[in-house]
């Protein structure tokens, strides 16, 4: 077991009672889209993109399921093609009825531990998590800084895309949070 994998499992935050983590399936795409839409904070992508995400990036994404198996939260992510040891977290959302119970933190811990375990036989290991957050998105800032604190990891921040980079105007800058390296 790598140091990164052991550290992530050692500091794993448990899922709230009655919920379980799972890899998303194409059939979850519509529910994931609705959760994103209803979040009120995410940039909503087309419903088609969430279907593709659940098909093509299921290994680096996660859904939380309630007792009936319905998605009530999700994280979408991918490994950066030029830095395959970096998990980029694209979106995080939790259904309003399940917020405030640590579900997003449990999903983030579980996803990173799962990706680290999946990469155990790869020629590279998971060594960083990256995400972008718009200034003022306090929930995301807390989620990712508390993840870093829980795992005793450094966080570097820099503007990745300033507001002028967005062609549709009116978009706040996206600040890159680079968490890691793991196992140092």
- Please give the order of strands in the largest beta sheet: 1-2-3-4-5-7-6
Tell me about the biggest sheet?
7 strands, mixed
Structural class: alpha+beta
Mean pLDDT: 90
In whole angstroms, the N-to-C terminal distance is: 15 Å
Strand and helix order:
HEHHEEEHEHEE
Explained architecture:
The chain is an alpha+beta fold and 184 residues long. The protein contains five helices and seven strands; from the N terminus they run H-E-H-H-E-E-E-H-E-H-E-E. The chain has helices at 3-10, 29-39, 47-56, 103-118, 138-150; strands at 20-22, 62-65, 71-80, 83-94, 128-133, 155-161, 174-179. The chain has a seven-stranded mixed beta sheet. A hairpin with a 2-residue loop joins strand 3 and strand 4. Helix 1 (3-10) packs antiparallel against helix 4 (103-118) and helix 2 (29-39) crosses helix 3 (47-56). The longest helix has 16 residues, at 103-118. It is globular.
